[in-house]
Structure formats: C-alpha cells, structure tokens
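Support reply, case 0932

Customer input (verbatim):
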Amino acid sequence: MYADVTSKPVIAPELAVQLITAAWQLYRAQGWADRANRSVVTEPIYAIENIPEQNVHHGDLIVPSLLQTVVNNAIALTFTSTTDIPLENAIVLEITDEIRSQAAADSLTVINDNVLRTLQDDHNDFRAKIAEMLHQDLIRLQDLKTLAYITTMADTVRAKAESDALYDHARDAVLAPVDHTVDVSVQILSARYNQNWSTYNHSAITHDGCVVSFFQKTRMEPMSRVRITAKVKAHGRVWNRPDLAETRLNYVKIVKNIKDIK
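Our regenerated output:
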C-alpha cells in the first residue's frame, strides 16, 4: 500500500482516531460492518443496495476496506502533493464536532483501560500498542492497521463495564420452559459476531433479571433495549458467569426498539 509514505511518522494520532471513528460510523450506518471486525478493517466488499454511487469504486462496484478508506483520507489530509496516489474513488470522511468528541472519548477509554489492566497485571500487547500510539506526536500510516480497532476496543470496554453492573443484578433463573413462546423486553449486554453463521450472538437481560441469548442478523447496540418475541430453545449457563442461568432463544423477532433508556 503506498510504500513511499507508510514507513515514516506523518499523521497525528488525534486526527487518525477521528478518521477511524468517522469510518466506523459510516460503515456501520451503511451496513458494511455487519461482519467480523477484522474483515471490516482489512477486506473490501461487493456493493449492496442503497450504497450511494459516489461511495463505491466505479466499474467493479467494490467498497474498500475500512483501513483503505482511512489511509486514503489520511493521505489526502497529510500530503500536499498526491499526484501519484489514486484518491479519486476514495470515500471521503467528514469529521464533525460529534466525531471529534467521540474519538477523544474512545482514546481516553482505551488509555485508562490499559493503565488499569497493567496495574492488575493483565498485560495485552495489542492493547498496549494502541495506548502507546495515542501518546506519540506522529504515527506511521502502516500503524493505522492496528489503530483501526480502537473504536471496537473502546466499545467493548464500555459495554463490559455496563454489562458487569447488570450481571450483578441478574437472577439465577430461566425465563420460561423449553418450547414456550415469550414476549419480553430485554436490554442488550453484548453482541459478538459469529463467523460460522454470519450473524450476531446477542446476550441480553430481562427487566426481572433473567439472562437470555439469541442470534440476530443485524447487530444491536449494547445497552439498547428492544421488545422481542421468541421461542425458548434451551437452558444453560452464562459462559463467563457460571453462577447464572441462561435461556437460549430462537425464532426471534424484533417487535419494537425502545428509545431513551439511559
């Protein structure tokens, strides 16, 4: 990828995180991020319906990887002469005040989490590398491949803190017997992409403290609330909280998104 400009520090991490935040928001809004995070960052996809024509490569209808989009925008903002770099088909990212605020919050979340985990002797080289980049004056374009995960890392840190608090109020009880149909409002605790089934495995909690899990093609934001109808498939234990029962649901239908829950 542009070997002449990737090997030397050229972009401030603050700007890089803003571009990454803008890219993740765009890719999620367009439905381009409904796959594994690594695929979003590194792999292009074929265009689908409702993608604006100006946002795809003309002719072959390919949406570039999130990393490529971020790199193209970083080059356009950093270099005064880009005559040798094909940017005419790049997706242009808009950095708004909201993007700046979210990017700053994500950076602070990851830095603080790395400090806390280090004090707890919970070392992670990938997390530490991102935290180190955020403290540098300039980073290399090739470093964006690692930094591109800061958005999902910050999301995970925040979601875990919030879900842990909700788990503390969960009951060791099943929602309903197997094969029963349920109509219930739940709060999403986590959403993990299952590459084998090309769908998201959601963990959630009901208003009375029962933990449930189910597959859903569309990712639902952690801490959001939805009303669902479903059929009880099985009973088990929460994988990271064996002290809690879990009700596995299938045939799940989203009846209503419940707004303003926080």
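We compared this against your earlier run and they match. Two observations from our side: The CA atoms of residues 76 and 118 lie 36 Å apart. DSSP finds eight helices and nine strands in the chain. Please reopen the case if you see a mismatch on your end.
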